[in-house]
Design goal:
Strand order of the largest sheet of chain A: 1-2
Number of helices of chain B: 11
Structural class of chain B: alpha/beta
Number of strands of chain A: 2
Order of helices and strands of chain A: HHEEHHHHHHHH
Distance between the termini of chain B: 41 Å
Shape of chain A: elongated
Strand content of chain B: 15-25%
Oligomer: heterodimer
Largest sheet of chain A: 2 strands, antiparallel
Mean pLDDT of chain B: 83
Chain lengths: 255, 315
């Protein structure tokens, strides 16, 4: 399994799509952090837009804000499993490893690994930018162990997103449908479901579970972090099983 | 005493797509040390058969084995079987070297970079190793597909239309390569619609039509069974004619003085001449006989791309 995951990582890193998503996600994330830092404690027409950043909790929120990159990790996961179908390379992959469930699991593990890297780098970059900005500004960033602990939680949130995206891609195989489905789910279906059924919101994969792992905006109705991790793993496992069953049953018939 | 299984064995294979039967109770085998051509008109079921053989599609009946085992049951498939199918593609943004490194890594082969370099050199793509595949010509893609098939140094090759896109030099190179591979004990199953090319490359033929087995055997036997002739020119024409007839061949004398021999193979004619020290000035098959045999066996349906393809059959 390790060599399969290594091969899948090689596939991701030797194509340019993952790099493009990473760069885009980082730019957007750092732009958001920069916006927060630029307006923190400053007023526009006498009104404070963003509260001043002067507590450990503020620093933690800046790190958790980097969890926005999980959207790009989700897209990375969805495209990493569907790219092989798009370009017809899946036949060659199954010729080398004909036991297909191993390929699907390796792809999802590889996507989760790259997603974790996305999240960790984004969180550290956000922390570094905030620390530098405030130091230059004459202030300082209050950092304690809880701030550092937020970094791996952002990595975990992005890893789970990437794994879910990978499992959806394994089930749908069409790259366009996989991307449309994950974006529609995250941007339309979950907010709508959360508004219509508030009691269900903590259990929704992204706005509930992922937010509980990396809570960019603290909310009272989120699950406990470890409960959220457990539920996230259940989602990933169930989605992976669906992806495996679909992949095992489908003939490879080219593009 | 146990007998060695054929390199490839297909038994009672059946595949249906809805109401269409793409492969119908098909059986044949491929021996080691031979290049076997897999012929049939468009939509005959060649690619579907190969896909089932390689575990890419499920059979509705029967089975296809490689080296005595189902493909999925092979311990290290790329070390046993090298395959290049038209349906397998390449990521256009990846270089040829990266493609092979990924494949070698996935296969668990030691030193994937060295394997990629060796395979690219073997197929003459070393100068394009670091170019993205998106910019490759059809012939270069064909060579890369073959390089992918060779990374595990397999003993069986399954190739679907491997000469498509190759220039004449590439076709000649492929022919030499396949002959050499078989001479080292390897088994080759190769589908092609280029009958003249097949006639020069393969030892055996398996002919299918509408998913069903039509015939199989040595090329000369199949062509000879149709009454195709071997043309012989010799300064000792009469002596050789008598010798040929004594060995069961039917011999006619053409208007240009050459002998037209039927009922035997070209190899047998050559061996008979050598055994009796008969000087030959010419020894060849009469032209286009494989094509004639093919058209006869498949009821005159030609292999032109305009023939309607069946679901799931790319060739």
């Amino acid at each position: 399994m390790i060599r399969l995951v290594r091969a899948e990582l090689l596939k991701i890193t030797t194509a340019r799509l993952a790099l493009a998503m990473f760069v885009l996600g980082m730019l957007l994330g750092l732009a958001g952090t920069g916006f927060t830092l630029a307006f923190a404690g400053r007023g526009i027409d006498g009104q404070v837009v963003v509260d001043a950043i002067d507590t450990v909790g503020d620093a933690r929120e800046l790190v958790y804000g980097a969890a926005q990159i999980a959207l790009f990790a989700l897209l990375l996961g969805a495209t990493s499993t569907t790219t092989e179908h798009r370009y017809g390379t899946i036949g060659g992959t199954f010729l080398i490893t004909p036991v297909r469930w191993r390929v699907v699991v390796a792809k999802i593990l590889a996507a989760a690994t790259v997603g974790a890297v996305f999240g960790l780098v984004a969180a550290l970059a956000s922390l570094a930018l905030s620390w530098s900005w405030l130091a230059i500004d004459g202030g300082g960033l209050q950092v304690d162990a809880s701030v550092w602990a937020a970094v791996p939680r952002v990595g975990a949130a992005a890893a789970i997103s990437a794994a879910l995206g990978g499992a959806v891609g394994a089930s749908l195989t069409s790259q366009v449908w996989a991307v449309v489905t994950v974006i529609a789910w995250r941007v339309v279906v979950e907010p709508l479901a959360g508004a219509l059924l508030p009691a269900a919101r903590p259990f929704l994969p992204f706005s509930g579970v992922e937010s509980a792992i990396a809570p960019a905006q603290p909310s009272l109705d989120l699950l406990e972090p470890w409960t959220a991790v457990g539920l996230a793993l259940v989602y990933v496992i169930v989605a992976t099983i669906v992806g495996v069953v679909v992949t095992e049953r489908r003939d490879v018939d080219g593009r | 005493m146990t007998s060695t299984p054929p390199a490839i064995e297909v038994r009672g294979l059946t595949k249906r797509y809805g109401s269409v039967t793409a492969v119908d109770d098909l059986s044949f085998s491929v021996a080691a040390g031979r290049v076997t051509g897999f012929l049939g008109p468009n939509g005959a079921g060649k690619t579907t058969t190969m896909r089932i053989l390689l575990g890419l599609a499920r059979a509705d009946g029967g089975e296809a084995r490689v080296l005595g085992r189902l493909y999925r049951g092979l311990d290290a498939p790329v070390r046993s079987v090298g395959a290049a199918l038209e349906i397998t593609g390449f990521h256009p943004g990846r270089t040829a070297r990266s493609h092979l490194r990924v494949a070698a890594t996935q296969a668990g082969l030691a030193d994937p970079s060295a394997i990629a370099t060796t395979a690219l050199t073997r197929v003459g793509l070393d100068e394009a190793a670091d170019r993205r595949v998106g910019g490759f010509s059809a012939g270069m893609r064909q060579r890369l597909a073959l390089a992918s098939a060779l990374i595990g140094d397999p003993s069986v090759l399954v190739l679907d239309e491997p000469s498509n896109g190759l220039d004449p030099a590439g076709v000649a190179w492929l022919r030499r390569f396949l002959r050499h591979f078989a001479s080292q004990g390897g088994a080759v199953l190769v589908s092609s619609h280029l009958l003249a090319e097949v006639a020069q490359t393969v030892d055996e033929l398996v002919v299918i039509d509408r998913g069903r087995f039509v015939t199989s055997g040595p090329v000369d036997d199949i062509v000879g069974a149709l009454g195709a002739a071997v043309v012989v020119r010799s300064p000792e024409r009469e002596r050789f004619r008598v010798l040929l007839e004594e060995h069961g061949a039917q011999v006619g004398v053409a208007s240009d003085g050459s002998l037209s021999v039927t009922g035997t193979s070209i190899e047998s004619v050559g061996e008979l001449a050598a055994a009796h020290a008969v000087v030959l000035h010419e020894l060849r098959r009469s032209g286009a006989t494989l094509e004639e045999a093919f058209l006869h066996l498949t009821g005159g349906r030609d292999d032109a791309p305009t023939s309607p393809a069946r679901p799931g059959d790319a060739s």
